[in-house]
Amino acid sequence: MSNFIDELKWRGMLHDVMPGTEDLLQKEMTKGYIGFDPTADSLGVGNLVQIMTLMHFQKAGHKPMALVGGATGRVGDPSGKSQERNLLEIDQLQHNQDCQRKQLERFLDFNCGANSAELVNNYDWFKDMGFLDFIRVAGKHLTVNYMLAKDSVKSRLETGMSFTEFSYQLIQGYDFYHLWKNEGVKLQMGGSDQWGNITTGTELIRRMAGGEAFALTTPLIKKADGSKFGKSEGGNIWLDPEKTSPYHFYQFWLNAADSDAGSFLRIFSLKNKEEIEALEAEHAEAPHTRVLQRALAEEVTERVHSRADLDNAISASDILFGKGTEESLRSLNSATLMNIFEGVDQFELSRDQLSAGIPIIDLLAESTAVFPSKGEARKMLQANGVSINKQKVGADYVLDTKDLLNDQLILVQKGKKNYYLIRLS
To answer: What is the pLDDT of residues 100-120, one digit of tens each?
Structure first.
Protein backbone atom coordinates (compact mmCIF):
# COMPACT_ATOMS: atom_id res chain seq x y z
CA MET A 1 0.00 0.00 0.00
CA SER A 2 1.20 3.51 -0.81
CA ASN A 3 0.75 6.46 1.55
CA PHE A 4 -2.67 7.93 0.77
CA ILE A 5 -2.24 10.90 3.13
CA ASP A 6 1.07 11.92 1.55
CA GLU A 7 -0.54 11.70 -1.89
CA LEU A 8 -3.33 14.06 -0.85
CA LYS A 9 -0.90 16.46 0.83
CA TRP A 10 1.32 17.13 -2.18
CA ARG A 11 -1.73 17.45 -4.40
CA GLY A 12 -3.26 20.07 -2.10
CA MET A 13 -6.23 17.80 -1.38
CA LEU A 14 -6.02 17.49 2.41
CA HIS A 15 -7.92 19.85 4.69
CA ASP A 16 -8.64 18.06 8.00
CA VAL A 17 -7.72 14.59 9.18
CA MET A 18 -8.53 12.96 12.49
CA PRO A 19 -5.52 11.86 14.57
CA GLY A 20 -4.70 8.19 14.01
CA THR A 21 -6.05 8.08 10.46
CA GLU A 22 -2.66 7.84 8.77
CA ASP A 23 -1.53 5.09 11.16
CA LEU A 24 -4.67 3.11 10.35
CA LEU A 25 -4.16 3.44 6.59
CA GLN A 26 -0.52 2.37 6.80
CA LYS A 27 -1.40 -0.61 8.99
CA GLU A 28 -4.21 -2.26 6.99
CA MET A 29 -6.36 -2.16 3.90
CA THR A 30 -9.14 0.15 5.02
CA LYS A 31 -12.71 0.57 3.85
CA GLY A 32 -13.61 4.21 3.40
CA TYR A 33 -16.59 5.97 1.90
CA ILE A 34 -17.81 9.28 0.54
CA GLY A 35 -21.44 10.31 0.19
CA PHE A 36 -22.86 11.73 -3.04
CA ASP A 37 -25.95 13.84 -3.48
CA PRO A 38 -28.50 11.90 -5.57
CA THR A 39 -30.75 14.85 -6.41
CA ALA A 40 -29.53 15.02 -10.04
CA ASP A 41 -29.14 12.28 -12.63
CA SER A 42 -25.57 13.37 -13.30
CA LEU A 43 -22.55 14.21 -11.22
CA GLY A 44 -20.86 17.51 -11.95
CA VAL A 45 -17.25 18.69 -11.98
CA GLY A 46 -17.84 19.88 -8.42
CA ASN A 47 -18.03 16.18 -7.47
CA LEU A 48 -14.72 15.40 -9.13
CA VAL A 49 -12.66 16.29 -6.06
CA GLN A 50 -14.40 13.54 -4.10
CA ILE A 51 -14.26 11.12 -7.03
CA MET A 52 -10.51 11.72 -7.37
CA THR A 53 -10.16 11.20 -3.61
CA LEU A 54 -11.75 7.76 -3.97
CA MET A 55 -9.52 7.03 -6.98
CA HIS A 56 -6.37 7.81 -4.99
CA PHE A 57 -7.77 5.82 -2.05
CA GLN A 58 -8.19 2.77 -4.28
CA LYS A 59 -4.81 3.25 -5.98
CA ALA A 60 -3.24 3.33 -2.51
CA GLY A 61 -4.58 -0.20 -1.93
CA HIS A 62 -7.73 0.57 0.05
CA LYS A 63 -11.39 -0.21 -0.61
CA PRO A 64 -13.51 2.76 -1.74
CA MET A 65 -17.24 2.94 -1.25
CA ALA A 66 -19.56 5.53 -2.77
CA LEU A 67 -22.74 6.12 -0.80
CA VAL A 68 -25.61 7.50 -2.82
CA GLY A 69 -27.98 9.06 -0.33
CA GLY A 70 -31.34 7.67 -1.35
CA ALA A 71 -32.59 8.36 2.17
CA THR A 72 -30.70 11.57 2.94
CA GLY A 73 -31.64 12.83 -0.53
CA ARG A 74 -35.21 12.84 0.71
CA VAL A 75 -34.22 15.04 3.66
CA GLY A 76 -31.69 17.62 2.47
CA ASP A 77 -28.24 18.50 3.79
CA PRO A 78 -28.00 22.05 5.19
CA SER A 79 -24.20 22.17 4.78
CA GLY A 80 -23.24 25.12 2.59
CA LYS A 81 -26.88 25.78 1.68
CA SER A 82 -28.81 28.99 2.14
CA GLN A 83 -32.20 27.37 1.70
CA GLU A 84 -33.84 23.96 1.89
CA ARG A 85 -33.55 21.77 -1.19
CA ASN A 86 -36.39 20.14 -3.06
CA LEU A 87 -37.14 16.60 -1.94
CA LEU A 88 -37.38 13.79 -4.49
CA GLU A 89 -39.40 10.60 -4.69
CA ILE A 90 -37.96 7.09 -4.67
CA ASP A 91 -38.29 6.36 -8.40
CA GLN A 92 -36.41 9.52 -9.33
CA LEU A 93 -33.73 8.88 -6.73
CA GLN A 94 -33.22 5.33 -8.04
CA HIS A 95 -32.86 6.64 -11.59
CA ASN A 96 -30.33 9.21 -10.41
CA GLN A 97 -28.36 6.55 -8.55
CA ASP A 98 -28.18 4.32 -11.64
CA CYS A 99 -26.93 7.22 -13.75
CA GLN A 100 -24.31 8.23 -11.19
CA ARG A 101 -23.01 4.67 -10.89
CA LYS A 102 -22.31 4.56 -14.63
CA GLN A 103 -20.27 7.74 -14.27
CA LEU A 104 -18.37 6.45 -11.24
CA GLU A 105 -17.44 3.32 -13.18
CA ARG A 106 -15.26 5.47 -15.44
CA PHE A 107 -13.10 6.31 -12.42
CA LEU A 108 -13.31 3.43 -9.96
CA ASP A 109 -12.66 -0.27 -10.50
CA PHE A 110 -15.66 -2.29 -9.32
CA ASN A 111 -14.06 -5.65 -10.28
CA CYS A 112 -10.54 -5.83 -8.90
CA GLY A 113 -10.80 -8.25 -6.00
CA ALA A 114 -10.41 -7.33 -2.35
CA ASN A 115 -10.36 -3.59 -2.86
CA SER A 116 -13.06 -3.40 -5.52
CA ALA A 117 -15.20 -0.29 -5.30
CA GLU A 118 -18.76 -0.62 -4.03
CA LEU A 119 -21.86 1.52 -4.36
CA VAL A 120 -24.31 1.58 -1.46
CA ASN A 121 -27.60 3.37 -0.89
CA ASN A 122 -28.60 4.42 2.61
CA TYR A 123 -32.26 4.00 1.68
CA ASP A 124 -31.60 0.24 1.92
CA TRP A 125 -31.16 0.40 5.70
CA PHE A 126 -33.55 3.26 6.40
CA LYS A 127 -36.57 2.16 4.37
CA ASP A 128 -37.84 -0.29 7.02
CA MET A 129 -36.84 1.76 10.06
CA GLY A 130 -39.65 3.72 11.66
CA PHE A 131 -39.25 7.18 13.14
CA LEU A 132 -39.70 5.95 16.73
CA ASP A 133 -37.14 3.19 16.16
CA PHE A 134 -34.62 5.69 14.81
CA ILE A 135 -34.90 8.22 17.63
CA ARG A 136 -34.73 5.38 20.17
CA VAL A 137 -31.70 3.71 18.55
CA ALA A 138 -29.71 6.76 17.46
CA GLY A 139 -31.33 9.96 18.66
CA LYS A 140 -30.80 9.40 22.38
CA HIS A 141 -27.02 9.27 21.99
CA LEU A 142 -26.51 12.87 20.86
CA THR A 143 -27.59 16.00 22.71
CA VAL A 144 -29.29 18.92 20.99
CA ASN A 145 -26.44 21.12 22.27
CA TYR A 146 -23.94 18.91 20.42
CA MET A 147 -25.94 19.15 17.18
CA LEU A 148 -26.47 22.92 17.48
CA ALA A 149 -22.71 23.47 17.82
CA LYS A 150 -22.07 22.23 14.27
CA ASP A 151 -21.18 24.99 11.80
CA SER A 152 -23.64 23.65 9.23
CA VAL A 153 -26.44 24.27 11.75
CA LYS A 154 -25.19 27.51 13.30
CA SER A 155 -24.92 29.18 9.90
CA ARG A 156 -28.63 28.59 9.29
CA LEU A 157 -30.11 29.44 12.69
CA GLU A 158 -30.76 33.09 11.84
CA THR A 159 -32.52 32.37 8.55
CA GLY A 160 -34.30 29.28 9.86
CA MET A 161 -33.98 25.53 9.40
CA SER A 162 -36.67 22.88 9.36
CA PHE A 163 -36.50 19.94 11.74
CA THR A 164 -36.11 17.79 8.62
CA GLU A 165 -32.80 19.42 7.76
CA PHE A 166 -31.73 19.64 11.39
CA SER A 167 -31.99 15.85 11.59
CA TYR A 168 -29.65 15.40 8.60
CA GLN A 169 -26.44 15.14 10.61
CA LEU A 170 -27.95 12.45 12.81
CA ILE A 171 -29.03 10.46 9.76
CA GLN A 172 -25.62 10.82 8.13
CA GLY A 173 -23.98 9.90 11.42
CA TYR A 174 -26.09 6.75 11.54
CA ASP A 175 -24.94 5.90 8.00
CA PHE A 176 -21.37 5.78 9.27
CA TYR A 177 -22.42 3.69 12.27
CA HIS A 178 -24.30 1.23 10.03
CA LEU A 179 -21.38 0.85 7.62
CA TRP A 180 -18.91 0.55 10.50
CA LYS A 181 -20.98 -2.15 12.20
CA ASN A 182 -22.08 -4.13 9.15
CA GLU A 183 -19.36 -3.52 6.55
CA GLY A 184 -16.27 -2.80 8.61
CA VAL A 185 -15.95 0.75 7.26
CA LYS A 186 -13.55 2.78 9.40
CA LEU A 187 -13.14 6.01 7.46
CA GLN A 188 -15.51 8.60 6.06
CA MET A 189 -14.23 11.29 3.70
CA GLY A 190 -15.80 14.37 2.16
CA GLY A 191 -15.48 18.09 1.52
CA SER A 192 -14.46 20.38 4.37
CA ASP A 193 -18.09 21.52 4.75
CA GLN A 194 -18.91 17.93 5.77
CA TRP A 195 -16.53 17.80 8.73
CA GLY A 196 -19.32 18.34 11.26
CA ASN A 197 -21.53 15.64 9.76
CA ILE A 198 -18.64 13.18 9.49
CA THR A 199 -17.47 13.68 13.06
CA THR A 200 -21.05 13.22 14.22
CA GLY A 201 -20.69 9.74 12.75
CA THR A 202 -17.45 9.02 14.61
CA GLU A 203 -19.05 10.28 17.82
CA LEU A 204 -22.14 8.11 17.29
CA ILE A 205 -19.95 5.04 16.76
CA ARG A 206 -18.11 5.81 20.00
CA ARG A 207 -21.28 6.40 22.03
CA MET A 208 -23.41 3.59 20.58
CA ALA A 209 -20.80 0.85 20.44
CA GLY A 210 -17.59 2.08 22.07
CA GLY A 211 -15.96 1.84 18.65
CA GLU A 212 -13.38 3.92 16.87
CA ALA A 213 -13.70 5.46 13.42
CA PHE A 214 -11.89 8.18 11.51
CA ALA A 215 -12.54 11.26 9.40
CA LEU A 216 -10.79 13.07 6.56
CA THR A 217 -11.82 16.06 4.48
CA THR A 218 -10.62 17.81 1.36
CA PRO A 219 -10.65 21.58 0.84
CA LEU A 220 -13.49 23.21 -1.03
CA ILE A 221 -12.14 24.25 -4.43
CA LYS A 222 -12.39 27.87 -5.45
CA LYS A 223 -10.89 29.70 -8.37
CA ALA A 224 -8.03 32.11 -7.70
CA ASP A 225 -10.42 35.03 -8.26
CA GLY A 226 -12.66 33.72 -5.48
CA SER A 227 -15.49 32.57 -7.75
CA LYS A 228 -17.13 29.20 -7.35
CA PHE A 229 -15.51 26.25 -9.08
CA GLY A 230 -17.65 24.02 -11.29
CA LYS A 231 -19.82 26.61 -12.97
CA SER A 232 -19.64 28.54 -16.22
CA GLU A 233 -21.78 31.30 -17.65
CA GLY A 234 -24.17 28.59 -18.80
CA GLY A 235 -24.52 27.05 -15.33
CA ASN A 236 -23.24 23.76 -13.90
CA ILE A 237 -20.65 21.72 -15.78
CA TRP A 238 -21.99 18.15 -15.79
CA LEU A 239 -20.33 14.82 -16.53
CA ASP A 240 -23.32 13.75 -18.63
CA PRO A 241 -22.65 14.62 -22.31
CA GLU A 242 -26.35 15.34 -22.79
CA LYS A 243 -26.16 18.08 -20.15
CA THR A 244 -22.71 19.43 -20.98
CA SER A 245 -21.29 18.48 -24.38
CA PRO A 246 -17.75 17.04 -24.50
CA TYR A 247 -16.73 20.17 -26.42
CA HIS A 248 -17.98 22.56 -23.72
CA PHE A 249 -16.55 20.26 -21.05
CA TYR A 250 -13.13 20.41 -22.75
CA GLN A 251 -13.39 24.20 -23.10
CA PHE A 252 -14.18 24.56 -19.38
CA TRP A 253 -10.79 23.10 -18.46
CA LEU A 254 -8.94 24.72 -21.36
CA ASN A 255 -10.12 28.14 -20.19
CA ALA A 256 -8.74 27.73 -16.66
CA ALA A 257 -6.75 30.77 -15.54
CA ASP A 258 -2.98 30.41 -15.33
CA SER A 259 -3.27 30.99 -11.59
CA ASP A 260 -5.58 27.96 -11.27
CA ALA A 261 -4.16 25.54 -13.83
CA GLY A 262 -1.32 24.16 -11.69
CA SER A 263 -3.51 23.42 -8.66
CA PHE A 264 -6.28 22.00 -10.86
CA LEU A 265 -3.78 19.67 -12.55
CA ARG A 266 -2.65 18.35 -9.16
CA ILE A 267 -6.24 17.74 -8.05
CA PHE A 268 -7.92 16.43 -11.19
CA SER A 269 -5.07 14.63 -12.94
CA LEU A 270 -3.41 11.30 -12.16
CA LYS A 271 -0.05 12.61 -13.35
CA ASN A 272 2.70 12.24 -10.75
CA LYS A 273 4.57 15.07 -9.05
CA GLU A 274 7.53 14.98 -11.42
CA GLU A 275 5.30 15.10 -14.52
CA ILE A 276 3.30 18.03 -13.18
CA GLU A 277 6.37 19.99 -12.10
CA ALA A 278 7.87 19.48 -15.58
CA LEU A 279 4.70 20.82 -17.17
CA GLU A 280 4.70 23.79 -14.79
CA ALA A 281 8.29 24.61 -15.75
CA GLU A 282 7.39 24.39 -19.44
CA HIS A 283 4.37 26.62 -18.86
CA ALA A 284 6.48 29.21 -17.00
CA GLU A 285 8.75 29.55 -20.03
CA ALA A 286 5.91 29.93 -22.54
CA PRO A 287 2.57 30.71 -20.85
CA HIS A 288 0.94 31.52 -24.18
CA THR A 289 1.09 27.84 -25.20
CA ARG A 290 -1.24 27.01 -22.25
CA VAL A 291 0.49 23.67 -21.80
CA LEU A 292 -0.97 23.20 -18.30
CA GLN A 293 -4.53 23.85 -19.46
CA ARG A 294 -4.15 21.54 -22.46
CA ALA A 295 -2.76 18.70 -20.37
CA LEU A 296 -5.59 19.15 -17.87
CA ALA A 297 -8.37 19.43 -20.46
CA GLU A 298 -7.16 16.43 -22.45
CA GLU A 299 -6.77 14.07 -19.50
CA VAL A 300 -10.04 14.92 -17.76
CA THR A 301 -12.11 14.98 -20.98
CA GLU A 302 -10.83 11.59 -22.08
CA ARG A 303 -11.45 10.05 -18.65
CA VAL A 304 -14.98 11.43 -18.30
CA HIS A 305 -16.00 10.88 -21.93
CA SER A 306 -13.75 9.02 -24.40
CA ARG A 307 -10.73 9.42 -26.65
CA ALA A 308 -13.03 9.94 -29.63
CA ASP A 309 -14.91 12.70 -27.78
CA LEU A 310 -11.60 14.34 -26.89
CA ASP A 311 -10.41 14.22 -30.51
CA ASN A 312 -13.71 15.77 -31.58
CA ALA A 313 -13.36 18.50 -28.97
CA ILE A 314 -9.81 19.31 -30.07
CA SER A 315 -10.86 19.41 -33.73
CA ALA A 316 -13.82 21.60 -32.85
CA SER A 317 -11.58 24.00 -30.93
CA ASP A 318 -9.16 24.22 -33.84
CA ILE A 319 -12.05 24.99 -36.17
CA LEU A 320 -13.52 27.66 -33.93
CA PHE A 321 -10.23 29.42 -33.38
CA GLY A 322 -9.12 29.50 -36.98
CA LYS A 323 -6.82 26.53 -37.44
CA GLY A 324 -9.30 24.00 -38.81
CA THR A 325 -9.76 22.75 -42.34
CA GLU A 326 -12.76 21.60 -44.34
CA GLU A 327 -11.59 18.03 -43.82
CA SER A 328 -11.57 18.44 -40.02
CA LEU A 329 -14.92 20.18 -40.17
CA ARG A 330 -16.45 17.28 -42.10
CA SER A 331 -15.10 14.84 -39.54
CA LEU A 332 -17.45 16.25 -36.87
CA ASN A 333 -21.02 15.09 -36.37
CA SER A 334 -23.93 17.53 -36.46
CA ALA A 335 -24.38 17.52 -32.68
CA THR A 336 -20.77 18.61 -32.15
CA LEU A 337 -21.08 21.30 -34.79
CA MET A 338 -24.24 22.65 -33.18
CA ASN A 339 -22.51 22.64 -29.79
CA ILE A 340 -19.41 24.54 -30.86
CA PHE A 341 -21.44 27.13 -32.73
CA GLU A 342 -24.08 27.44 -30.05
CA GLY A 343 -25.31 31.00 -29.93
CA VAL A 344 -24.23 32.03 -33.44
CA ASP A 345 -26.85 33.33 -35.87
CA GLN A 346 -28.60 30.59 -37.79
CA PHE A 347 -30.57 30.67 -41.02
CA GLU A 348 -32.72 28.09 -42.78
CA LEU A 349 -32.83 26.98 -46.42
CA SER A 350 -34.98 24.40 -48.13
CA ARG A 351 -33.32 21.49 -49.88
CA ASP A 352 -35.03 22.51 -53.11
CA GLN A 353 -33.43 25.96 -52.94
CA LEU A 354 -30.01 24.48 -52.40
CA SER A 355 -30.40 21.74 -55.01
CA ALA A 356 -31.10 24.37 -57.66
CA GLY A 357 -27.88 26.17 -56.77
CA ILE A 358 -27.60 29.55 -55.01
CA PRO A 359 -25.07 32.20 -56.03
CA ILE A 360 -22.98 33.10 -52.98
CA ILE A 361 -23.93 36.80 -53.10
CA ASP A 362 -27.65 35.93 -53.14
CA LEU A 363 -27.13 33.57 -50.22
CA LEU A 364 -25.29 36.12 -48.10
CA ALA A 365 -27.55 39.13 -48.71
CA GLU A 366 -30.98 37.71 -49.63
CA SER A 367 -31.47 34.14 -48.40
CA THR A 368 -29.73 35.09 -45.15
CA ALA A 369 -28.78 38.31 -43.39
CA VAL A 370 -25.04 37.69 -43.18
CA PHE A 371 -24.59 40.98 -45.07
CA PRO A 372 -27.07 43.86 -45.23
CA SER A 373 -26.59 44.29 -48.99
CA LYS A 374 -25.21 42.58 -52.07
CA GLY A 375 -22.67 45.37 -52.43
CA GLU A 376 -21.15 44.71 -49.02
CA ALA A 377 -21.18 40.97 -49.65
CA ARG A 378 -19.40 41.41 -52.99
CA LYS A 379 -16.81 43.73 -51.44
CA MET A 380 -15.94 41.21 -48.70
CA LEU A 381 -15.84 38.32 -51.18
CA GLN A 382 -13.44 40.24 -53.41
CA ALA A 383 -11.25 40.90 -50.40
CA ASN A 384 -11.07 37.13 -49.77
CA GLY A 385 -12.93 37.56 -46.48
CA VAL A 386 -15.65 34.90 -46.76
CA SER A 387 -15.30 31.15 -46.19
CA ILE A 388 -17.77 28.32 -46.73
CA ASN A 389 -16.93 25.34 -44.52
CA LYS A 390 -13.46 26.85 -43.85
CA GLN A 391 -12.70 27.25 -47.56
CA LYS A 392 -12.28 30.74 -49.03
CA VAL A 393 -14.74 31.43 -51.86
CA GLY A 394 -15.02 34.13 -54.52
CA ALA A 395 -17.90 36.26 -55.74
CA ASP A 396 -18.77 33.79 -58.50
CA TYR A 397 -19.18 30.77 -56.20
CA VAL A 398 -22.47 28.84 -56.38
CA LEU A 399 -23.59 26.71 -53.44
CA ASP A 400 -25.46 23.44 -53.77
CA THR A 401 -25.95 20.22 -51.79
CA LYS A 402 -22.25 19.29 -52.08
CA ASP A 403 -21.59 22.05 -49.53
CA LEU A 404 -23.69 20.39 -46.84
CA LEU A 405 -21.96 19.04 -43.73
CA ASN A 406 -23.59 15.79 -42.60
CA ASP A 407 -26.26 16.53 -45.22
CA GLN A 408 -27.66 19.20 -42.85
CA LEU A 409 -25.45 22.24 -42.25
CA ILE A 410 -23.31 24.85 -43.96
CA LEU A 411 -20.81 26.96 -42.02
CA VAL A 412 -20.30 30.53 -43.20
CA GLN A 413 -17.41 32.58 -41.86
CA LYS A 414 -17.16 36.35 -42.33
CA GLY A 415 -13.74 37.70 -41.47
CA LYS A 416 -11.86 35.93 -38.69
CA LYS A 417 -14.42 35.65 -35.90
CA ASN A 418 -17.94 35.93 -37.30
CA TYR A 419 -19.64 32.58 -37.85
CA TYR A 420 -23.11 31.71 -39.16
CA LEU A 421 -24.85 28.37 -39.53
CA ILE A 422 -27.20 27.57 -42.37
CA ARG A 423 -29.33 24.47 -41.87
CA LEU A 424 -31.87 22.74 -44.01
CA SER A 425 -35.45 23.30 -42.91
So the answer is: 999 999 999 999 999 999 999
